[in-house]
Amino acid sequence: MNVEKLQQIFAQSLEIDAIHVVDELTYNSIPEWDSVAHMALVAEIEDQFDVMLDTDDVLDMSSFAKAKEILAKYEIEFS
Amino acid sequence: MSFFELTEKCQQLAVVTNERTYTYTQLAQQSNKFIFNSTQKELILILTKNTVQVLASYIAALDSGHAVMLLNYDINKELLAKNIEQYRPKWIVGDINISGYKSENLLLTRIDETSNYKIHADLAVLLSTSGTTGSQKFVRLSYGNLRSNAQSIIEYLAIDENERAVMNLPLSYSYGMSIVNSHLLAGAALILSEESVMEKSFWEEVREHKATSLAGVPFTYQMLQRIGFMKMDLPYLKTLTQAGGRLNEKLVKVFGEYAQQNNKRFFVMYGQTEASPRMSYIPHERVLTKLGSIGIAIPGGNLTIDSETSELIYKGANVMMGYAECLEDLSLGDELSGILYTGDTATVDNEGYFTITGRMKRFIKLFGLRINLDDVEKKLEAVIQAPIACTGNDDKLVVVIEKEEQMGHVKENLERLYKLHRSAYKVVILEIPRLANGKTDYMKLKESCL
């Protein structure tokens, strides 16, 4: 459930197709995921999962896999 | 006659990169590798990137008295080709292959040696006014413009040789260029970085290299707040500067209070590329009492307001020579005589602090990119063939259409023409308010959309 939800958030914020949202997708590896999109992405994640991310977590969220890992710390389960 | 006179500062620290540091003597050695020999004044195109080689080529170009066109290395290829064809630079600095040029290391030299153009003796730098393909125009800045503005900045920011400024803005952007000029002329150091504040490695650089100052556009400050900058422990960082568009008052207050409580200085500044670029600043100790203002004129400059139109007028030695729209324009001298009509309307308080109230022409600035609202309207109207109106502020572009079925088409074209992220604009369906003469009522439009 949450995996699809996060995938949708990524797809919408980065304006890419959901099939491209895979674990290996990393920040700055595609033109769509730049700092502007990152801001939108973080805001959307916080909104939809109702969490407030720490500084380090915002900076660390450099891939889709990493995003799941970080959100797990906020008790959002992905399996 | 050398512009930067690097060798006078010999053993002082000049540049810090992730690989190593350079003293002024070592930076001069790097700069001496670029030899721009010619019997006449030439144009050099530098594709800017924050590396020591590019910085060295910029220094070499100005120290040899040529004229430099600065474009960022990630510029759209078509636009680059168009500029090269139009301005025929004798040399190009960049990691690139261009037909008609032979390349050696980072330096490309035009094969056809005929140079039947004349470049004005005072011309130093050409900066683009817009990043979009439609309306490319260059601002012509003289050696005197650069020197004068750098001196003013050194004075009001009190830059000395102990300063270590993070330089992560493009050199092709007037704000970035002014950081380089002011710090090198003050004998201070630049920490060269291509990273944004959104990256973890950026903060590692800031800590490791003991950065003392950080520069940002409004969006940078939004990011800084977002990532919890205020909670970071950065004992060496003493100065924050902000320019490149209006920062909303709430954020000015947040950063002003942060600076006050943490013994740091926060400078809100105002400028335009046409003024090389700085025109005003709020002295850091006044930022909380002068929220929303652009402050006072920089040392050596003078601001006034036109009594009829309320337009803000700047006078100073840093006002550009004029614009260039073709190669022939590079032979032109100073056309403005130190007076710049800013296109902004303003008010002034009894202490001489100015506040921008609007724009004469309808421009907004999104992520540092200047967007002409009339231009957006014209372009979109041409493709959707229906009434359209644009408004906005420095946070968002708002496009108003009257029929919902055009929504997809408008969004598609906005993204194609201006490469805007979805969070940077919104499309609103609304009956466009009109004045009695049938023209769009922009006042009302803005009220109902923002």
From TrEMBL, chain A:
Superkingdom of origin organism: Bacteria
InterPro entries (UniProt xref): ACP-like_sf
Protein name: Acyl carrier protein
Organism from which the protein derives: Lysinibacillus boronitolerans JCM 21713 = 10a = NBRC 103108
UniProtKB/TrEMBL annotation, chain B:
Key words, A-Z: Ligase
Domain AMP-dependent synthetase/ligase per the UniProt entry, residue ranges: 9-323
Keyword Ligase: yes
Entry annotated with the keyword Ligase: yes
Highest taxon listed in the record's lineage: Bacteria
Family assignment from sequence similarity: Belongs to the ATP-dependent AMP-binding enzyme family.
Name of the protein in question: Phosphatase
Species for this entry: Lysinibacillus boronitolerans JCM 21713 = 10a = NBRC 103108
Taxonomy of the source species: Bacteria, Bacillati, Bacillota, Bacilli, Bacillales
